[in-house]
Amino acid sequence: MADGVAPDRNLALELVRVTEAAALGCGRWIGRGDKEAADQAAVDGMRAMLDSISMSGVVVIGEGEKDEAPMLYNGEEIGNGQPPEVDVAVDPLEGTRLTSVGQPNAIAVIALAERGTMFFPGAAVYMDKLVGGAEVADALDLDVSPAENVERAAEAKGVRPSEIAVVILDRERNQPTIDGVREAGAKVNLITDGDVAPAIAAARAGTGVDLMMGIGGTPEGVIAAAAVKCLGGVVLGRLWPRNDDERRQLVDAGYDPDRIVTTDDLVGGDNVFVAATGVTDGALLRGVRYTRGGAVTDSIVMRSRSGTVRRVEAQHALDKLERFSGRQYR
Ligand code: VTB
């Protein structure tokens, strides 16, 4: 091969089993009004499959601090301890509430990058985010107004501002962004939760999502950045401390809350793997569907180095899985 690199293992193909297991775990909690149970089932499903992956992973983005999260906590070592050494970001169920009330866009997702290359969010709970695909990547800027970004995106895509669809988390703090986008004449799709799937959808052609904007979770921004590294596009962010205390904590820990962070700041590696499986239907993926004795999952699998993006539809024979794994899937 041109640069002498022989075809090697594509970890994303193994990781899809991990996100499928998470989605199948929480699938039976869709619409049942219990988000904790849904999350736990996703974590259990993911955890069971992770040990089968040949890697030496450290969780950089996980379920939280060790004391609150019994599994997949930040700093936890996962995988079977073999090379490669990687940073891992997991969200076994991104959209716990969405799942519990049967709303769209809940996904199970995992991302891997070379050790030491993922941004650790620390005390930065929130980040102001701007995400778009390859066509608009060079046109976007977090220092110009939301309306200006819509206009730039429209121009780069060769469409009218009214043809641009922007997904924004429906929060008080995002009202100025919502107003600005509407001012530019674009469509605002408000979501109640779960900005990872729409962020990935924004970077992917043909999803109906052009941009994702607004203040949401920082960990979710890192996961979106991993996917954008694979798909092309851009994630721009600025940490958004909620108060002076949080700002001070960030500054003391060496973060600069005023600086714009780019895709590469969020995920610096160039061999990034991402897998995501739909839990409920959304712009990016279809949710888990049940059939007689089984279930069908829809996943997306990607790798930054090669730029390969795969869509994986899997039929799971739940009756068989239950028999040999002893796990309950229905
Ligand atoms: C954000 C968003 C996530 O939760 O973190 C949100 O990025 C929490 O926002 O995708 P609030 O604290 O304002 O509720 C999600 O929507 C789901 O985890």
Give a quick rundown of the structure.
The protein is α+β, with helices and mostly antiparallel strands. The protein is 31% helix and 25% strand. Helix 1 runs antiparallel to helix 2.
Please provide a written account of the structure.
- There is one protein chain.
- The protein has helices spanning 11-27, 35-50, 96-100, 146-157, 175-183, 196-203, 218-231, 244-252, 263-266, 318-325; strands at 56-61, 77-78, 85-94, 107-114, 126-132, 165-169, 187-191, 211-217, 234-239, 273-278, 289-291, 294-303, 309-316.
- The mean pLDDT is 95.
- The relative contact order is 0.17.
- The protein has 330 residues and is of the alpha+beta class.
- Strand 11 and strand 12 form a beta hairpin.
- The structure holds 7-O-phosphono-alpha-L-galacto-hept-2-ulopyranose.
- 7-O-phosphono-alpha-L-galacto-hept-2-ulopyranose is lined by residues 94-95, 171, 193-196, 216-217, 220.
- 7-O-phosphono-alpha-L-galacto-hept-2-ulopyranose binds next to strand 8.
